Amino acid sequence: MYIDPLATKSLTMSYHKLKVAVIGAGAGGLCAARQLLSRPQTFAPPVVYELSDCVGGTWVYTDRVGKDDNGLPIHSSMYRDLRTNLPKEVMPFPDFPFDTQLPSFIHHTDVKSYLEQYTDSFKIQPHIKFRTYVELLNPVFGTTGDAQNTWEVTCLNLNSHCRSRDRFDSVIICNGHYSDPFIPHIPEIEHFKGQKMHSHEYRFAEPFTGKNLVLLGAGPSGTDIALELCPVANQVVLIHNNLPISSQLPPNFLQVKGVNRFSETGVICDDGMEYPADVFMFCTGYNYSFPFLKDVDLKVKDYRVTPLYKHIVHTTFPTLFFIGLCQTVCPFPLFHNQVLFALASLDGTHKLPPKAEMDMLTEEEYQSSLHHGIPHRHFHKLDSLQWSYMDELAHLSKTEPIPPVTRDLYEANAKIRKQDLCNYKRFNYKIVSHDMWTTVEPKPL
Ligand code: FAD
């Protein structure tokens, strides 16, 4: 069934304020709640469902791995000594800067504090239902042929173990996408006698002292964890396909292309060599996972989520929004723009095209990205396209675009990181104006 997005507008104008649910109180969910609260004429105060007992999502570090006390998988992939790979000057929501006293590359606890301050400043906390796990999200259709469906959220209170159901006009899904480890098939894995793990379970380096480690995948976590392990490990082998990382690297850090199969004691790579491994770590990313969407037509095929318009709007149900699916981006500014676009389409500031047109435009964009050599599974990986994407969202929602200095410093940091992976976090930056940044004297770590 197709829902006419125009019906949303008449809904807002006619008889009541829109009731919006937000799933998750990580950065994405907090941003959605803050923006909803700032539009009290149009939106009723939101209900934010959060399964844990605090805000911050990814940024809530725990030593634990596996399952939590409720038998749910541990959500956060944060490790103890992580410092951000983006300078704090580009990371914040545009309406809430980080403390200027902090260095540019901050510890994860500083990001958590920042999100707590954001929550306090915009008085979001009273609207969050903590320890409340969303089990099911279903569209509900009226019997009188209403064009507009509502949404029923079924949730489990993890304290009382009681279930409850609430109705909403719209739902913004911000459940995070760094929790459900993706583990590729590698032949003969069953023969390997060493320890296998995913970077999701990595917490700190000490248990790996003196060991031979093989890591698969050179994304931000793979490279960062490999470098963190080098000072304690005997040898760290990073297997990846973008050889070589041209930066200067520690002497016990090797790079190898293509894992071929496991042996009992290590892995055999495309060069025919066997690399011994006490531990093999998959740094191979995460699956998109929406376990509560059982009755909504949503396909996740090889990292692409459909049917979505602008990576956000479900085209069959244009009151259902997904925040934060895009990868290789500047997350908080991107969430900000995505949320404003979602709210603009709900309050009628931006009229969404009909479903057929949204699907057609998305298909055109997908075909064009294939044509430009971007593989299917990287459709949500925006990289340098993120800036025009965010500008477009801002234009459509009639809001302020992200200042050019964010893009310039983000891109400069990417370049410096590539040149000097071991030392790029020594730099400190300062924003001078909306289109100018400067390097402050590098400080020793
Ligand atoms: P999350 O932070 O994952 O929040 C999702 C929330 O939803 C969680 O609180 C979870 O408990 C809740 N939830 C999930 N399912 C349910 C349910 N069914 N019911 C109720 N609640 C639910 N970004 C940067 O900007 N800079 C960095 O340096 C950086 N480093 C990173 C390092 C690592 C190791 C990782 C994993 C990510 C990093 N990121 C970084 C990206 C980071 O994930 C984003 O910045 C951002 O915090 C993601 O926010 P989110 O709201 O999308 O998801």
Automatic annotation (TrEMBL):
EC assignment: 1.-.-.-
Keyword Plastid (UniProt): no
Main EC class the enzyme belongs to: oxidoreductase
Any GO MF annotation of the entry: N,N-dimethylaniline monooxygenase activity
Pfam families: FMO-like (PF00743)
Alphabetized InterPro entries for the sequence: FAD/NAD-bd_sf, Flavin_mOase, Flavin_mOase-like, FMO-like
Keyword DNA-binding tagged: no
Family to which this protein belongs: Belongs to the FMO family.
Protein name (database record): Flavin-containing monooxygenase
